Amino acid sequence: MAFDIEMIKKVYENMPDRVDKAREIVGRPLTLTEKILYNHLWDGKPTQAFGRGVDYVDFAPDRVACQDATAQMALLQFMHAGKAKVAVPTTVHCDHLIQAKVDAATDLARAKTQSNEVFDFLSSVSNKYGIGFWKPGAGIIHQVVLENYAFPGGMMIGTDSHTVNAGGLGMVAIGVGGADAVDVMSGMAWELKFPKLIGVKLTGKLSGWTAPKDVILKVAGILTVKGGTGAIVEYFGEGATSMSCTGKGTICNMGAEIGATTSTFGYDDSMSRYLRSTNRADVADAADKVASYLTGDPEVYANPEQYFDQVIEINLTELEPHLNGPFTPDLATPISKMKETAIKNNWPLQIQVGLIGSCTNSSYEDISRAASLARQVSAKNLKTKSQFTITPGSEVVRYTIERDGFIDTFEKIGATVFANACGPCIGMWDRDGAEKEERNTIVHSFNRNFSKRADGNPNTLAFVGSPELVTAMAIAGDLGFNPLTDTLINEDGEEVRLEAPTGDELPPRGFDVKDPGFQVPAEDGSGVQVVVSPTSERLQLLAPFDAWDGKNITGAKLLIKAFGKCTTDHISMAGPWLRFRGHLDNISNNMLIGAVNAFNQKTNSVKNQLTGTYDAVPAVARAYKAAGVPSIVVGDHNYGEGSSREHAAMEPRFLGVKAVLVKSFARIHETNLKKQGLLGLTFANEADYDKIQEDDTINFTDLTEFAPGKPLTLEFVHANGTKDIILANHTYNAGQIGWFVAGSALNLIAAGKA
After folding, report:
1. What is the pLDDT of residue 97?
2. Tens-place pLDDT, residues 360-400
3. Which residues are catalytic?
4. Strand 556-561 and strand 631-635: pairing?
5. What is the Cα gyration radius of the chain?
6. Is 752 exposed, middle or buried (0-12, 13-18, 19+ CB in 10 A)?
7. Which residues lie across from 727 on neighbouring strands?
8. How far is CA 348 from the centre of its chain?
9. Interhelix angle for 5-26 vs 281-289, to 10°?
10. From CA 48, how far away is CA 44, in angstroms rounded?
11. What is the reported pLDDT for 576?
């Protein structure tokens, strides 16, 4: 039986009436996305049509999921809300704090020792507030959610940008910052600007070497890392229904890399098969009764241009396997073009490591197809030329693939099986030799490949591909190898060709597991004690941020003018810094240390205007804060791209930054800034970015008139006495301005005014 089955049945019970009413109000057939959104309005039955990309709307998500790195700060904030129990089903998953180094058993044991304090905190706070707790080793949040909690037509939010993975089971699942999660856990509405809609029509059928991963790699190449911003991507067509449920999850997962709010697919037989295979026949039976409401109306898919803001069509029969990268997930290269492209760009052709798994590609189908290639190594007398690692997505998958012999197959070709955790995908990889910062190539089936993302080495060129393509590339050890056309020389000196991968969508003998790693929360948590040591280096109770004093911000100093790409990895790095995710003061020492200073093209080197010397960004910010001097950050396009980590907003707030002024924001980061009481502003004229100088002092002239739709005016005073007046736009509505006035959204919740 499924978790929270009564809640799911209630969603389906409400859906026909609400969707029918929405269709009547909107006056046309509805997409799946619209059906789910209108069924989850905070006020219940729809009473008005909402403007895409215009109207802010209050929603009532069905559930919340948190991973251990972000859960610490989210739950520290929730403790301030004054609630006895979470208002909606919520789970915490311990997957980010396990560093990959040796093997699964060794690495998991080390993590339990090193992060015992954090795991104990998360376990106790979950137990106290009615939160389901998944222990270290249980698996990666998104795989565990897909296996246990996701359901067609549902809405969930999660404190990780790849929460969108649940779209593979027909959900609208959205990554958010911890403050948004706290709102929903506290029983409040969740606000989102009604998204635009991008339709992706999939024709034909995948075959041979082409995998679901290649669909999103192709889409990323079309839309780029910001092309999906403010939009939900809805996939449909014969190609969509011919694909496995977990394959759909892969596509939705990496939709985060195009900036999309989320992605989703309509309910079909593959979802029903997956639900029944994961012991949720009750959900499949309930979904079958409202199946027509769990997909877009037929008229929509017949004439998509009339109903979507943008339509993309991809013929899966003609789609070629892709490798995307390096350094950005939208640099798409068909495998047939990779050799010439690599040579042209002087990318190292020798592949040092191939890595498969992660929250993006760790399903039974993924592993079984990769194993079919691994078996060919001995059958064809080959030798694997690159190091090779596997990261299972959950203990259910790991146990099942071990039972079915896949782990033994991988180990026979020299592979290392890491723990059921994020590991190398998020920089939690203690890779031998990475500290030498040598230029090298790796290939992986993860979702992101920003500089330093996997191993901390800025000179590691990471390329993203499907697990089966990554496995073939690791066997060959050559970035220029095309398994569709090229041969390999085996140990006997013979030319052999790898046969196309094959595998089972679901385990023929069913999934199995001895201990999935779940802790059921106490029915009554009032007697559970949550202890945080005042001397802890890992955890720190939060103090409220100060409310706005009602005056214009004046005399602010430019902290940094960030040049080019500035993701949340640049603003608040992961990897070894994950250990401080529950300690705001300590983790603030990584604030913006990866951002490039536009004035000297260096990282972590900015001018302290109080001394005239250069120092680390956090050190300069602390100096300004100690002197009572506010500071401002300036950035480029798509600022805050990447992870949902709210630390990238909380750290600047904690260190005295008052505003972030950029050319454009990534959606989640902009919301995180607002929630923490910061001013997230955009240049009315992007060319004004070039007017900002290193020694600038900034004055707001009309902040006292802060209002929805009214730009703010900033005065940038240069060292020579001249000044530039710069107009800054914002997207704050009245409620969000209330967050700023109160000092943060949490301050309003704690005061009972939200």
Report:
1. 94
2. 999 999 999 999 999 999 999 999 999 999 999 999 999 99
3. 95-96, 160, 448, 643, 645
4. parallel
5. 25
6. exposed
7. 713
8. 29
9. 20
10. 11
11. 83
Q: How far is CA 459 from CA 440, 441, 600, in A?
A: 7, 9, 20
CA nearest 123: which of 111, 132, 115?
Answer: 132
Whether a cis peptide bond, with omega within 30° of 0, leads into 29 is no
Q: Both tokens of residue 258? A: 């195009």
| The two three-digit tokens of residue 63, written as one number | 């559930």
Using the structure block, give the residue that is written with the tokens 């001995």: 378
Q: Read off the tokens for 600.
A: 């000297």
Helix (H) / strand (E) element for 197: namely strand 196-203
Interstrand relation of 416-417 and 712-717 (parallel, antiparallel or unpaired): unpaired
**Quick one: CA torsion of 341, 466, 424, 382, rounded to 10 degrees?**
-80
Q: Tokens at residue 601, please? A: 């093209």
d(CA 683, CA 712): 10
What is the reported pLDDT for 753?
Answer: 63
Can you name the residues that pair with 442 across neighbouring β-strands? 353, 462
- Quickly tell me which residue has 């009615």 as its tokens: 130
Which H helix or E strand runs over 440? strand 440-444
Place of tokens 């004229």: 685
pLDDT digits (tens, 9 = 90+) for 263-279: 999 999 999 999 999 99
User: What is the secondary structure of 82-136 as a DSSP string?
Assistant: T-SS-SS-EEEE--SS--BSS-HHHHHHHHHHHTHHHHHHHHHHHHHHT-EEEPT
What are the distances in angstroms from CA 247 to CA 27, 122, 215, 508?
Answer: 34, 31, 10, 17
Question: Rounded distance, CA 212 to CA 351, Å?
Answer: 23
CA gap 361, 507 in Å, rounded: 16
End-to-end CA distance of the chain: 36
Preceding peptide of 544 cis, ω within 30°: no
Residue 208's pLDDT is 96
Contacts of 30 (CB under 8 A, 6+ apart): 19, 22, 23, 38, 296, 297, 300
How many CA atoms lie less than 13 Å away from 47 in the CB half-sphere? 5
Name every residue whose Cβ is closer than 8 Å to that of residue 414 and which is 6 or more positions away in sequence.
Answer: 384, 387, 388
Supply the pTM of this predicted model. 0.88
| CA atoms 601, 607, 613, 616: torsion sign | negative
| pLDDT of the residue at 667 | 85
CA angle 175, 178, 181 (to 5 degrees): 75
Size of the chain, expressed as the number of residues it contains:
754
Residue with tokens 């950005």: 328
Q: What pLDDT sits at residue 177?
A: 84
> What would you measure as the largest C-alpha separation in the chain, in angstroms?
79
Angle in degrees, 0-180, between the axes of helices 734-742 and 667-675, rounded to the nearest 10: 50
Residue 30's H or E segment, with its range, is none
Backbone region of residue 178 per phi and psi (left: phi > 0; alpha: psi in -120 to 50; beta: other values): alpha
**Residue ranges in the chain whose pLDDT is less than 50:** none
Do the Cβ atoms of 396 and 280 come closer than 8 Å?
Answer: no
Sheet arrangement for strand 440-444: 332-334, 322-324, 460-464, 440-444, 351-357, 387-391, 416-417
Q: Tokens in use for 150?
A: 């996701």
Q: Tell me the sheet residues that pair with 287.
A: none
Cα-based angle 283, 287, 292 (whole degrees, multiple of 5): 170
Domains of the chain: 5-43+53-315 (3.30.499.10), 322-496 (3.30.499.10), 556-751 (3.20.19.10)
String of DSSP letters for 618-640: HHHHHHHHHTT--EEEEE-TTBT
Report the alpha-carbon distance of residue 133 to residue 110 in Å, rounded: 20
